[in-house]
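Late entry, evening session. Most of the bench is empty. Finally got around to the prediction I had been postponing all week. Sequence below, unchanged from the version circulated by S.P.
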Amino acid sequence: MDDPERITEMLAALEDDHERLGELGGRILRAIGANDVTMAANALIELQRAQAAHFRFEEGLMEEAGFPGRGAHAESHDRLVAALDAINAALGLGRISSLSQDLGDFIEESLKHISELDECFRGFLNDLLG
């Protein structure tokens, strides 16, 4: 890939996605803090949809760019999806009080993913820019 404009667009789109995912995570935390199961469930569904779209987009970019770490990165995506599915299942059972730890673990894993794996991909894209 040797189109600097396309690479710059990729980087900006990834950053926008991460901000959106963070905002949705914050909404879930506020809903749990307010003990509002409906608000938490709605925000969680929105987060799951946004996360799935982001992961598809990001994995497509990795393939397009020829990123060699794509496999391990996609495996991390799968783990994050499974964790969010488990949180959604607990919420569906009305166990909102038990979600704080699970959600905290998910957020910690998400931040680790962003700081390590996404940063590696970002660096790869920046290296392509020269």
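Two things to note before I forget:
The radius of gyration is 16 Å.
Residues 1 and 65 are 6 Å apart (CA to CA).
Will write this up properly tomorrow.
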